[in-house]
Amino acid sequence: MKDATVQESEAPTSIANGIHHLDRSEDVDAIIVGRGGGSDSNLQAFNTERVAEAIFTANTPVVPAIGHTDDRLIADQLADVATITPTTAGEYIVNSRQEFLASAIEPLEQQLNAAYETFQQEHEHEQELVEAVMKRLYPRASH
């Protein structure tokens, strides 16, 4: 979490700095840029070049949660997905993560398990061959 000023003249710099700060953190999976609605003038920080650049260049997915459905903000247009409220943004991120795990990680887990089983079977076959050779070469030896 990173606090930022979201209105007045210092807001664009504060918001952009917050996005850049969170984007550099390895512990951050997604960035929600949020504020409650407001008048058009109160939301203008999200229509600035500085905030647009921060969202556009972020490597971490950015989800704005700014204002109301009537608001049309540059931040919403540049983001990975735009939502109306922080709650909606959180729900989107959690659902996206669960969908990702189901669609990407679970099949990889299945492939890894199948590869391990194949490896294990091949290893057992090699061990049986070694034992057979040992019996022929050293019939009196126990194994």
TrEMBL record:
Domain Exonuclease VII large subunit C-terminal: 3-136
One Gene Ontology molecular-function label: exodeoxyribonuclease VII activity
GO BP term, example: DNA catabolic process
UniProt protein name: Exonuclease VII large subunit C-terminal domain-containing protein
Lineage top rank: taxon: Archaea
Organism listed in the record: Haloarcula argentinensis
InterPro entries xrefs: Exonuc_VII_L, Exonuc_VII_lsu_C
Cellular component, GO annotation: exodeoxyribonuclease VII complex
Entries under Pfam families matching the protein: Exonuc_VII_L
